[in-house]
Amino acid sequence: MSYIQEVIEQTEQKNPGQPQFMQTVKEVLTSLAPAVEQNEAKLRKNVILERMVEPDRQIIFRVPWMDDKGVYHVNRGFRIQFNNAIGPYKGGLRFQKDVNLDTMKFLAFEQTFKNSLTSLPMGGGKGGSDFDPVGKSDDEVMRFCQSFMTELYRHIGKDMDVPAGDMGVGGREIGYLFGWYKKIVGDYSNGVLTGKGLSYGGSLIRPEATGFGATYFLEEVLKHEGENIKGKTFALSGFGNVAWGAAKKISELGGKVLTLSGPDGYIYDPDGVSGEKVDYMLEMRASNRNKVKDYADKFGVQFVEGKKPWGNVKADIYMPCARQNEILLEDAEAMVKLGVPVLNEVSNMPTTNEAIAFLQSHGVLVAPSKAVNAGGVATSGLEMSQNSERLSWSAAEVDEKLKGIMAGIHNQICDALHTYGMDYNLVAGANLAGFKKVADAMLAQGLY
């Protein structure tokens, strides 16, 4: 049995009932075969793969809070500190009712390789709670955030672990979390959280960063193929910050976004999501209704209830911007029948392993999320730099650095593929490039 397969089986035995975590472990490890085969003796001796799939720390805690009617509730909080070989743990907080340990571990493991690709000194972590902010008042969200931070503060710090926002955690939540952290520790360490408001240490471009970065990475991919974004059609899912940033940048570069989606279904806009329609996405997010049908009602376009755009809408490029495993094997089969040539993954692990394998076997170019959506955490890293230097860079400066980072990620992937004599397989290349930096750091630092 190969070293990789041994570790996969051991990990499966140690983590029963965690299908999402095992999905990403299998996806990453199986693509590392060229690197592992060349250095197997050293990697085995130093148990690199075994250590890489085992979190440094898994923190689970209760979060009691009171709603506006005086009723008490208890939610569960998480922080997974997965790997700090190359820098302090870095990764978002997700507040969503289906958050569990499996979700947190898959996200933190992915984050380790994603952060490595940015070339910034950041390790991998993730956290959150099964608290759902949808429909909650500002006061309820504030009380929950304060209770959450009352435990989390013990485990974070600007040189130890730096959380950010994720699904369900935007500027409002980060503000409440930071305010309570500051109150507890008696110290203005604004580098402890990223995604902050501009008035207290946040960075320009951060809300748009994931969508902008995903589009910049796609530019590099298309350039490699002798093409560009202008004139291309796009199917997007979601309508939050990530989809908003992507739609904004795609429109600027001459592409046309045809779809957005929500829990209620998807909209199809043949004229494209641009101008005031992009701006309206912010109103939809702020409304706390979580319904994409609002867009269809306002602009008089088609709304398809209870379905996703995947396999139902013909477009040049698919960009899932919502959540994990939204593209299943049957969706991939429908995509191939429609002739969709490119899948640019923006949300974390939006495509199942079976769907990725099917798409690649049928000639679809798949750009993996750990590379595509790294612009968000990269800009969080830039926010950390600004906080450390007590500086605030202009939007143009941040945007230029972000674009350079995304081009650098693509270059790293191409270099890794060249090293191992592989074709243009972005999924394998991203894993190989991200793995090398983390593994080299772990080898250099000894057994710990």
Give me the side-by-side strand order of the main sheet.
Answer: 9-8-7-6-10-11-12
Ranges where pLDDT stays below 50 over 5 or more residues in a row are: none
Strand content: 15-25%
The largest β sheet comes out as: 7 strands, mixed
Radius of gyration: 21 Å
Termini, distance in Å?
26 Å
In percent, how helical is the residue content?
Answer: 40-55%
Output the number of helix runs.
Answer: 18
Order of helices and strands: HHHHHEEEHEHEHHEHEEHHEEHEHEHHHH
Mean pLDDT: 97
Shape: globular
Number of strands: 12
Structure classification: alpha/beta
What does this structure look like?
- With 448 residues, the protein is of the alpha/beta class.
- The chain has helices at 3-14, 19-30, 33-38, 40-45, 48-52, 101-117, 138-152, 171-185, 209-224, 241-252, 276-286, 293-299, 329-338, 353-361, 369-372, 374-389, 395-419, 426-445, and strands spanning 57-66, 72-83, 89-95, 123-129, 161-165, 233-236, 256-262, 265-268, 302-305, 317-319, 342-344, 365-367.
- Strands 9-8-7-6-10-11-12 form a seven-stranded mixed sheet, sandwiched between helices. The protein has a five-stranded mixed sheet with strand order 1-2-4-3-5.
- A hairpin with a 2-residue loop joins strand 7 (256-262) and strand 8.
- The longest helix has 25 residues, at 395-419.
- The radius of gyration is 21 Å and the shape is globular.
- The chain starts with a helix and ends with a helix.
